[in-house]
Amino acid sequence: EFNTVKTVGCLGVLRSWKMDTQLSAVTLDLLSKMLEFDPVKRLQTMREVLNHPALFAASRQANDAEVER
Fold first, then answer.
1. Which of 7, 49, 52, 54 is least buried, going by the fewest C-beta atoms within 10 A?
2. How many domains does the chain have?
C-alpha cells in the first residue's frame, strides 16, 4: 500500500522485505527518488530518471558486456 511507502519510504519497505541488500546503493537511491511521496523531491521527468547514476552504471555494464563478446 502506498501509505506504507509514504510513512517509511521506499527504503523502509525494501528493508522490511529484506530486499535492501539485493540492490546496489545507487539503485536504491533511484527507486527512492522515483517513489518519493513529496512531489517536490520526486524525480519529475524521464530525463531526470535517465540521467540518474544508476542507469549510467547499468548502461556501462551493458556496453562492457558487448565489448567482451
1. 7
2. 1
